[in-house]
Input
Amino acid sequence: SRASLLDTKLFYQNASMSLTFSRPVRPDTFNPRKFTLLDQPSPLNSFTLASSSATASAPASITITLLLSVADLNAIKAARTLAYVAVEEGGILDASGKPVLPISSASAQMLSLIVLPTQAPIPTSFSLNLDSCVFTVVASETLNATSLNVPAVLISMSQVNNIFQLSAPQAASVVNFTTAVIKLSVNDCFQLRLLFATPAMSGLSFKATFMPAAFANMFNIVNSGNATLNMSSFVSDTTLPSLVEFSLNMSSAVITLTFNE
Output
């Protein structure tokens, strides 16, 4: 007979999973690409592990711990509803070298325990590009794109009393799970260019303050406190303005020129 998977637990906060089998298995034979998490046996969402590893208290053990990689954990968080596990043939070997029994997606096994995260996401870095009017912030964990509250962000510059509160952006999205890319409104970009036109030349630096509820993770835990970060990257406005239209009023002898910025 062959070993079978009996129980699976997922611990978001510890970035780990616990797998219990019917007989001892060897963690060094674990193949993450054979293990898939699903939202139900007939899945709408699923994710196959890619780079996680396994460990145990002995070379062969009934219970092993999966150490989820940052990329795997972020993907699981992004899906949020994954509560079943399927195993392909060759997912892991028992102590005698036999592969454990596979579990198909159609008969996926429900996880017995899911411990949700309790810590709020925190901003870890930000950059500002006034040439392309893009504000980028990286957080400590997967962000929910629908939670981005851009007006909860204040931008200031050291040694200057200017503080600017962002308004609703043109667009905002989350890429690579933890990075919020915000296309500033036309007015915000214009005002920032006016207020902060000299940091590259003067050596001044930007700061960003993230007020509570600036963003949330996939489990609706919002950032708290007023986290203030120094800017990690800055690009000034280097694109020359261009003329988009003009008008001539012969009666008043007035020429009106309109530029793109």
In short: The radius of gyration is 26 Å. The helical segments are 70-79, 186-195, 199-202.
